Amino acid sequence: MNLENIQAVKERIEEIRQRFAGFEDTKSAPLTNTSGLGDFTFADALNRARSVKSVSCPKDLEPIILSASSRHGVDPALVKAVIRAESGFRSDAVSRTGAQGLMQLMPGTARALGVDATDPAQCVDGGVRYLKQQLDRFGGDTKLALAAYNAGPGSVAKYGGVPPYAETQRYVNDVLRYTDSYSEDDK
Q1: Distance (Å, whole) CA 175 – CA 143
Q2: What is the pTM assigned to this prediction?
Q3: pLDDT at 35
Q4: Mean pLDDT of 71-98
Q5: Average pLDDT rounded to a whole number, residues 119-135
Q6: Residue 86 designated active-site
Q7: Which of 45, 109, 123, 134 is most buried as measured by Cβ atoms within 10 A of its Cβ?
Q8: Chain centroid to CA 88: how far?
C-alpha cells in the first residue's frame, strides 16, 4: 500500500468517526446479546444502534436552530436531523471533501451563502437557507430536497429523483428517521 492510499484510508476513518460522533452515548452501555443465538453478530450491534431513539441536540444549539428554522420556514426537527446526520452536532467537523461545520457546507456553498461555516450560528443559518432552497426547488418534497442537500441538485435532476447512490439513499432514510424522532421529542 502506498502513502497516498494510507492517507485516503485515514481520511475515510475520520469521516466515519465524525458521522458516528452522535452515538457516543451508546459506547458506555455494554452490548448484551438478547438474541439467544450465542455470540454477537454485526446485525445485533446494528439493530442496537438503530434502536437508539434520539441523540439529543445540545442545549446551546436549540435557540440557533429554532431561530434559523423560524426565519426560513423549515421544520426545526428536520434541521436537527440534518445536523445530526451531517456532523453529529460537532461544529468543528470537516469531511474528507472539505465540507465544514454543523451542516457540512462546502466552501463554495458557504461563500455563495455569505456565511462562515466554522461559526455555528452562521453555518446553521446558511445550511437552513440552502435546505429551504432545495425544498422550494423540488416542490416541498423533503426526500428530494435531502437528496439534493447530500448529492447536489444536479444529481437529483439527472436521475429524476433520489440518485441511485447508496450513501445518498442511506442519508435520506436516516435523516427522515431522525426527523421523526425529533418530532416526537418536541411533542
Answers
A1: 9
A2: 0.73
A3: 39
A4: 97
A5: 98
A6: yes
A7: 123
A8: 7
d(CA 92, CA 104): 10
Where does the pLDDT of residue 68 fall: very low under 50, low under 70, confident under 90, or very high at 90 and above? very high
Please report the domains of the chain, with CATH numbers, ordered by start residue. Answer: 3-51 (no CATH), 62-185 (1.10.530.10)
- Give the Cβ contact number of residue 11 at 10 Å: 13
Task: Tell me the average pLDDT across 142-167.
Answer: 97
Asked if 116 and 110 touch (Cβ cutoff 8 Å), the reply is yes
Please say whether the beta carbons of 177 and 84 come within 8 A. no
Q: What is the 3-state secondary structure (H, E, C) of the chain?
A: CCHHHHHHHHHHHHHHHHHCHHHHHHHCCCCCCCCCCCCCCHHHHHHHHHHCCCCCCCCCCHHHHHHHHHHHCCCHHHHHHHHHHHHCCCCCCECCCCCECCCCECHHHHHHHCCCCCCHHHHHHHHHHHHHHHHHHCCCCHHHHHHHHHHCHHHHHHHCCCCCCHHHHHHHHHHHHHHHHHHHHCC
Catalytic residue among 14, 24, 86, 184: 86
